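sry for the spam today, last one i promise. struct tokens for design, 299 residues
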């Protein structure tokens, strides 16, 4: 009866899609299911032999299955052995070198052994990443959306206060954008906005935070940058946009931007005020001729 029941359990575990390894108290494998063998391209053990957990880990090391360096892998093997020896562990993610993500879980068994499970959660992880991107990224320009930009600006502001570092905000607006839509259509307007986002990214540093905060309005937070350097960056961006028309079906569309610049200084006490000062400078730039940079200067 016991043998028949064991055969049923073995057959069932060989049909599940996740990897299963049953270890005894000495961490020798009593059972490894078919999914685990396939998942790790593990050859069957020698006749009469069995794998130890260390050997399973070393197989992953030898086949370069993980996205870590050989030195890190050696440490990783030892850490994983310690964790399994310690008993039940919460699920943890393993990043494979082939791009897959596995969820690994260790469960202590009543007889002192361990049950290890390996579940491919790649699709789930990708779905979460896509949802996160939808919540934070503007779909048209692939920049941060307004909500995420404001959250990032607040974080940059707190960091600048803690370290007493400079911080500059740029407000960037496409001049006469309504005319682009009216003359060429909204598809052309979308092309212009995507091109402006690319121009921003080409001029700004990777460490700068940039987002689309309105229809044709963009904003950027430049850490460790004073007002003069911020104005110089804004002027570089203005020139790049002016000198590189947007190609639309072989016909170039000339586009310019107006920019407002404000720095964290004087009586500026929160990020929303800094944004408001940059927006006020932007309004002045647009009211006095457009295609220019105006800086807010404390009196």
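last one done:
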């Amino acid at each position: 009866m016991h043998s028949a029941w064991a055969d049923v359990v073995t057959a069932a575990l060989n049909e599940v899609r996740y990897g299963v390894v049953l270890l005894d108290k000495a961490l020798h494998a009593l059972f490894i299911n078919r999914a685990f063998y396939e998942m790790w391209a593990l050859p069957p053990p020698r006749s009469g032999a069995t794998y130890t957990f260390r050997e399973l880990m070393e197989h992953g090391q030898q086949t370069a299955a993980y996205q870590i360096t050989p030195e890190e892998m050696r440490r990783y093997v030892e850490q994983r052995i310690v964790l399994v020896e310690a008993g039940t562990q919460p699920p943890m993610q393993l990043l494979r070198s082939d791009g897959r993500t596995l969820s690994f879980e260790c469960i202590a068994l009543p007889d002192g052994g361990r049950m290890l499970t390996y579940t491919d959660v790649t699709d789930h992880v990708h779905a979460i990443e896509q949802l996160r991107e939808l919540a934070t990224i503007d779909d048209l320009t692939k920049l941060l959306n307004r909500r995420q930009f404001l959250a990032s600006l607040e974080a940059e502001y707190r960091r600048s206060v803690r370290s007493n570092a400079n911080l500059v905000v740029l407000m960037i607006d496409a001049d006469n954008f309504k005319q682009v839509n009216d003359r060429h259509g909204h598809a052309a307007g979308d092309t212009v906005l995507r091109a402006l986002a690319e121009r921003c990214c080409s001029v700004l540093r990777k460490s700068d935070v940039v987002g689309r905060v309105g229809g044709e309005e963009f904003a950027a937070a430049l850490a460790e940058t004073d007002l003069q350097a911020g104005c110089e960056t804004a002027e570089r961006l203005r020139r790049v946009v002016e000198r590189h028309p947007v190609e639309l079906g072989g016909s170039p569309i000339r586009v310019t931007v107006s920019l407002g610049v404000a720095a964290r200084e004087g009586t500026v006490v929160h990020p929303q005020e800094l944004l408001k000062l940059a927006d006020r400078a932007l309004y002045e730039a647009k009211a006095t001729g457009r295609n220019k940079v105006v800086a807010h200067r404390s009196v």
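The first helix runs from residue 2 to 15. ok im logging off now
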